[in-house]
Design brief:
There is one protein chain. The protein is of the alpha/beta class. The longest helix has 18 residues.
C-alpha cells in the first residue's frame, strides 16, 4: 500500500513570523501517522518553519529550485542550499511557474534530475487548461508532460518521486474536477509510468490530486485507487488543513 502524502503549497503567502505562527497552529491538527505531511513554503520561510516544525511529523518543502549548483543566477535557490537546510521535498513545474515564469517541460526535467541528485523528492506538477480539456486532449497533454519530466530518470529514482495532477481550471477557482475525472487522469498517469518503466514502478509512485481540495471532498478523492493524497493550495493556510490531513479519522 502506498502511504498517502498531503502537501500544502503556500504559494506567495506568509511572512516568516506568520509562517511560524501557522506551523504552531497546525502542528496538533495535522498529526496523522497514516499520512506524510509536507508544508511547501516560500524560500524565506524555510528555516523558521523548519525550526517551528522540529519534533513533529511535518516535513518542510520548497516551492521551487534552480537546476544549477551555484553561479550568476540572481534570485534563484540552488538544490545544494535546500539540501543543506534539510529540505526533503520541492514542488517542480507548478502551472503558475509555467504560466508566469516561463517554465517548460524541459526545465522541469532538468530540475527533477537535479533534485534527485541531491536526495530531494520532487513533487512534479502536471495539468491541463480548460481549453485543452474541452478539446479532448487532456490525457495526451498530461502524457507528454510526464514523459518529458521523467527523461533520463531511472526506475529506482522514479519510484521515490511524487506526481501532482492539478487541472489548471480548478486551481483557486473553487471548481473541482469530479472524483471520476480526477481518478481517470491519475490512473492514466500511472499507466504512462508503467509504459515508461514497468508495473512495479507504476505501483510504487505516489500521485496526488490538486485543485480546490478541501475538508469536504478530501475523503472521497483520497479513497480512489490511483489518488495517493493531495497538493493543497489556499486551504493549507487555514486550520481546516488539519481536517484534510486527518480525512480518515
Amino acid at each position: 500500500m502506498r502511504k498517502k502524502i498531503i502537501a500544502g503549497n503556500w504559494k506567495m503567502n506568509m511572512t516568516p513570523t506568520e509562517a511560524v505562527n501557522l506551523v504552531n497552529t497546525l502542528k496538533p491538527l495535522v498529526n496523522n501517522e497514516d499520512v506524510d505531511v509536507v508544508f511547501c513554503v516560500p524560500a524565506i520561510d524555510i528555516i523558521p518553519a523548519m525550526e517551528a516544525a522540529k519534533g513533529t511529523n511535518i516535513h518542510i518543502g520548497a516551492e521551487n529550485m534552480y537546476f544549477e549548483e551555484s553561479g550568476a543566477y540572481t534570485g534563484e535557490i540552488s538544490p545544494k542550499m535546500l539540501e543543506d537546510a534539510g529540505v526533503k521535498y520541492v514542488v517542480i513545474g507548478h502551472s503558475e511557474r509555467r504560466e508566469y515564469f516561463a517554465e517548460t517541460d524541459e526545465t522541469v526535467n532538468k530540475k527533477v534530475l537535479k533534485a534527485l541528485e541531491h536526495g530531494i523528492t520532487p513533487i512534479i506538477c502536471c495539468g491541463e487548461s480548460l481549453t485543452q480539456r474541452e478539446q479532448g486532449i487532456t490525457i495526451d497533454w498530461i502524457r507528454q508532460q510526464i514523459k518529458i519530466a521523467f527523461l533520463n530518470v531511472t526506475a529506482d529514482q522514479a519510484k521515490t518521486t511524487v506526481i501532482a495532477y492539478e487541472p489548471i481550471w480548478a486551481i483557486g477557482t473553487g471548481k473541482t474536477a469530479t472524483t471520476e475525472q480526477a481518478e481517470e487522469v491519475c490512473a492514466a498517469i500511472r499507466a504512462c509510468i508503467g509504459e515508461i518503466y514497468d508495473e512495479a514502478t507504476a505501483d510504487a509512485i505516489r500521485i496526488q490530486y490538486g485543485g480546490s481540495v478541501n475538508a469536504g471532498n478530501a475523503a472521497e478523492l483520497f479513497a480512489q485507487p490511483d489518488i495517493d493524497g493531495g497538493l493543497v493550495g489556499g486551504a493549507s493556510l487555514k486550520p481546516d488543513f488539519g481536517k484534510i490531513v486527518c480525512y480518515n479519522k
